[in-house]
Amino acid sequence: MSTTTVKPVRADAGRYVLRTAGSADLDGARAVMLDTVYRDFGSGYVPCWHADIIDPDAAYLRPDRCTLLVVECEGEIVATGAVRDRGPQAPPNPQWVADRFPSGSTAQLCRIYVAPGHRRQGLARRLVRELCDFVARTGGYEAIYLHTDPAVPGAEPFWRSLASEVCDERALPGGGQGIVHFELPMPTPVQ
Prior knowledge:
By secondary structure, the protein is α+β, with helices and mostly antiparallel strands. It is 29% helix and 26% strand. It has an eight-stranded mixed beta sheet, with helices on both faces. The radius of gyration is 16 Å and the shape is globular. The two termini are 22 Å apart. The relative contact order is 0.15.
């Protein structure tokens, strides 16, 4: 179990508290994640893509090199963000993308979701900073990877403001999955 925690951070006059998730937060985190895959992605729950949503304890809380952060507002979980210690798989991702970001040495940012009524408050950006700090503290990672669905309003411009594009599958023959792969700069290790 990961012992690295994020000191609770208050923003917006104490309205939002960002912290490392505990077992008591998992139902609220799961609700934010499932709402996002149904509402924003339109895919709904797909077991091969979303098993971590159903069991975030096994995916994020127990492994030492993984984490799940939550943002709480007035007792409700309103945002999530996670790091997992595996890169993209091929298929469905292009083989060269999977080769560039191998599991074990890649920190994959995922499940950075903010409930609609709490967007545009800087929560996602704050989650990304804290997740990158976690990667630096944990050590052993050589790359920070993520992918996004450009059909989700605001997702692509948000990631383009923080990360470098690695592959836009829409430009591939046949369009691939239509997702965009990104890499974030590795943070300086925390001393």
